[in-house]
Amino acid sequence: MQALGKNGIPTKIVVIDDIGIWFRYNGRGYCTFQKEERGIIVISIHNVSKSYHQQNIAYQAISNVTLNVNKGEIHGIIGASGAGKSTLLRLMNLLEVPDAGEVLINNQELTKLRGRSLRKARQTIGMIFQHFNLVANKTVYNNVLVSLELANYPKKDRRARVTECLKFVGLETHADKYPAQLSGGQKQRVAIARALANQPEVLLCDEPTSALDPNTTAEILEVLQTINQQLGVTIVIVSHEMEVIKSICNRVSVMEKGQIFDTVNIMPKGFTTPDKNPQWFVDQLTKAGDLHHA
Amino acid sequence: MPDIIVQYQTEIWQSIEETFVMVGFSILAAIILGLPVGTFLFLCRKGQLLENRVVFSILNLFVNIVRSFPFLLFVVFLIPFTRLIVGTAIGTMAATIPLSIMAIAYYSRLVEQALLDVPKGVIEAATAMGASILEIIYKFILVEARAGLVLGLTTSTISFISYSTIMGVVGGGGIGDFAIRYGYQRFETELMIYMIIIMLVFVQIIQFTGATIARKIDKR
């Protein structure tokens, strides 16, 4: 067993749970001695660089980044806007093609794949987006179905699989609706069902809650956590919202100017499902006031 | 029924049939060739999936040249080409050639515009799901843009009717030609007005049908 995290010695056991044994680490976070599957690397980004050209001016979005994401973890990526968080995530399924370096998913070098083999590899990597990116002219059912069609999923099993995925996100009764008839949180859950349909090992989330209100944010985070715990899907989540990252991630990379400033292990502190009751909002506001006094 | 219409009913029916043939072929050409040309125009644009400056420039130039021709001149200019394809430069079938080429150019531009309305994120999601270019076109882009494509075809069809009225110069016939020859040149003003009303009714029906279909299939 090996402690993850940077050259510090864990000092005090804080808690033992089904993820691992958690220690206080250098007074600023937590690290863990992790159980069995931890430590198997699912996503490996090696010396990757990416620049954009805008009116002949090169802009270095990612410079020489190396990052490993372990199987089963919820890996957060946080940083100021323009730090390169989204670009780093989009490099993981080659939506952005790196100028240099390698991207490996399950030891398969994505950066060497072209055409059909790249498409096949992408079918095993789920992705969800800030603005959901559903096909507005397809029903909820068909939005999930298309993902199976693309992967040549056996025809006779498709209906059952779509229903199963919709059930998982709690939308089986909405199968015949169109995205425009759904709330933001429901749309994101359809997107999650679509991403899960082909049983991916990895789920990439690009600002998945940034277009949602606090209620639905908690709802989506709960779904993501369930996916991680029940299905064992490795999740990478990009967000600028500190609360989101703190609530479910167990490892977080902080980015600055296209580089990883630091990667820390934290203990996910969970999320409070906010009440729809207006009093909840009042309580939250006054609590913030207390903090100010402290 | 006004006497004058009864008197000319054979000619009227024939001219309506000629208009239908000319416009029908134009619509076919627009769908079979204009739709792919427009899709390529869209896909070859800067920043799109098949970004290709050479192909885009060639298609763009074709569309611009055809559309900037005064249509009457275009018909005349195309006579040698029409003769090559149909064997004659005179008659309704011959008239369909310049009309169809204009239809391809006209509709492809509207297709390009309709596809530009598809959110980039949808194409991105399709790519992330491992869709091929063909799958992205059929299962995502065209599905998302279908209302715009129908409205574009409606607008195009109405324009084709208008363009078809001058096909008299190459003996193409049609309602417009009939209205000019009998109504205007033979001073049967009443007949001309009836012909205009017939065209107006056609245009109304087409516009209403197109708009209704577009509204029904648009779930955005």
Describe the secondary structure blueprint for this structure.
The complex is a heterodimer of chains A (294) and B (220).
Chain A: E1 12-16, E2 20-25, E3 29-34, E4 41-54, E5 57-70, E6 74-79, H1 85-91, E7 100-105, E8 108-109, H2 115-122, E9 125-128, H3 140-150, H4 155-168, H5 184-196, E10 202-206, H6 214-231, E11 234-238, H7 242-248, E12 251-256, E13 259-265, H8 278-293
Parallel strand pairs in A: 6-11, 6-12, 9-10, 10-11
Antiparallel strand pairs in A: 1-2, 2-3, 4-5, 4-7, 7-8, 12-13
Helix pairs in contact in A: 3-4, 3-5, 4-5, 5-6
Chain B: H1 3-7, H2 9-43, H3 53-68, H4 71-77, H5 79-86, H6 92-116, H7 120-128, H8 133-144, H9 146-164, H10 175-184, H11 189-217
Helix pairs in contact in B: 2-3, 2-6, 2-9, 2-10, 3-6, 5-6, 6-9, 7-8, 9-11, 10-11
GO biological process, one term (chain B): D-methionine transmembrane transport
Keywords (chain B): Cell membrane, Membrane, Transmembrane, Transmembrane helix, Transport
Domain ABC transmembrane type-1 (chain B): 16-210
Shape of chain A: globular
> Mean of the pLDDT scores of chain A?
85
Which chains share the greatest interface?
A: A-B, 31 and 22 residues
Mean pLDDT of chain B: 94
Strand portion of chain A, in percent? 25-35%
Oligomeric form: heterodimer
- The secondary structure category of chain B is mainly alpha
Low-confidence spans of chain B: pLDDT under 50, at least 5 residues? none
CATH topology of chain B: MetI-like fold
Structural class of chain A: alpha/beta
Helix amount of chain B: over 70%
Mind telling me which CATH architecture of chain B this is? Orthogonal Bundle
Task: Give the distance, in angstroms, between the N- and C-terminal Cα atoms of chain B.
Answer: 46 Å
Give the CATH class of chain B. Mainly Alpha
- The count of β-strands of chain B is 0
GO cellular component, one term (chain B): plasma membrane
Transmembrane segments (chain B): 20-43, 55-79, 85-107, 149-171, 191-214
Membrane topology (chain B): Multi-pass membrane protein
Subcellular location (chain B): Cell membrane
